[in-house]
Design a protein that fits this description.
- Helix 11 links the parallel strand 10 and strand 11.
- It is built from 12 helices and 12 strands.
- By secondary structure, it is an alpha/beta fold.
- 43% of the residues lie in helices and 15% in strands.
Length: 328
């Protein structure tokens, strides 16, 4: 898309005409990034970031885009980008992590709309009662009746006597723990959860991950399954050998359990400083492309750092359609 076209699309989106811009303006291909879809209402600080989209909103988001764009499998979009074939106005749908609601809530909507999707799994969480550390903290803060949290990770005692304060503390702790390697982050999250009075329990509700039987059911429904590391390790926070094992073993787990693995890798967290040139080179040797969380259109000159559009529960259908039209 030309710079003028992007500016027009973004202006229309700001004025509330996102769907009209998607209808009128041709655009570069886009890859949508979801994490979860849920039928559980948001409450307190549960799902406070909106990363699990309500079923109704999810269906309306995809329907708004599908009216004006060709929804294609990720592997088709990647192949066309690599071969420099026409792929304007194409959109692919992806999911990161492997939450159970991907099967229970997202897949039925995708099937009803006839939209393909690729699900990227942090394989060390599949089939085991293991918490993603961010979820453990969110759940512990939600249920905590402590008036404040002490400064084990934070520099000073922080009050947590309201949802707003809990959300603020959660954002700050997440940012700090993401700067650590995954083992230290998990250990700190467990300590903090205990400090907050949280009992050790298995993940529940929207925090639950799929089993391998669930994954095979998704694959049997025609969806693609890909690798997203074993431990959701931020690959630039660990040494190269460990990072290579995280990538290689995650893909092998998917192949062993489903018979196939998508030839696209998905970086955990996915921001530019969450992987490094050595990791990119390793992916280049073993995959046909890799996905980041940089916002924007998918471009063939960045096959191993493909941008995506992150979608959450606060994204209106019209806004998403406008983003697709104006990404670039």
């Amino acid at each position: 898309m030309s710079t003028v076209g992007r500016l027009i699309a973004r202006s229309m989106n700001r004025m509330g005409f996102g769907e009209q811009s998607c209808r009128l303006i041709s655009s570069d291909p886009s890859i949508l990034l979801y994490h979860g879809v849920t039928d559980e209402p948001r409450h307190g600080i549960v799902n406070c970031t909106g990363k699990h989209v309500s079923v109704d909103r999810f269906e309306k988001q995809l329907a708004a885009v599908a009216r004006y764009r060709k929804m294609v499998p990720l592997v088709e979009l990647v192949s066309r980008l690599r071969d420099q074939k026409p792929c304007r106005d194409m959109v692919a749908v992806t999911f990161d992590d492997g939450y159970l609601n991907n099967l229970e809530c997202a897949a039925p909507v995708l099937q009803r709309l006839g939209i393909p999707a690729t699900f990227f799994l942090a394989t060390g969480f599949i089939g085991v009662p293991r918490w993603m550390w961010q979820d453990r903290l969110e759940s512990a803060l939600e249920s905590s009746r402590e008036p404040a949290i002490r400064g084990e990770v934070l520099p000073e005692v922080e009050p947590i006597d309201s949802d707003d304060r809990k959300r603020s503390v959660l954002r700050r702790i997440n940012a700090i723990l993401k700067s650590m390697n995954w083992q230290d982050a998990e250990a700190k999250a467990l300590q903090l959860a205990a400090q907050l009075g949280g009992e050790r329990c298995e993940p529940h509700g929207l925090y639950r991950f799929m089993s391998w039987d669930h994954v095979r059911k998704l694959a049997g429904q025609g969806f693609d399954i890909g690798a997203h590391s074993v431990n959701h390790a931020i690959l630039s926070r660990i040494d190269l050998g460990e990072a290579q094992r995280e990538i290689r073993e995650s893909a092998q787990h998917v192949r062993d359990q489903t018979g196939d693995c998508c030839r696209v890798f998905c970086y955990p967290n996915g921001k530019p400083d969450d992987y490094n040139p050595e990791v990119v080179n390793f992916c280049r040797e073993h995959f046909s492309a890799a996905l980041s969380t940089t916002w924007g259109a998918a471009r063939g000159e960045r096959m191993y750092e493909l941008a995506r559009i992150i979608v959450d529960d606060d994204t209106t259908p019209a806004t998403l359609a406008g983003w697709v039209a104006g990404a670039g």
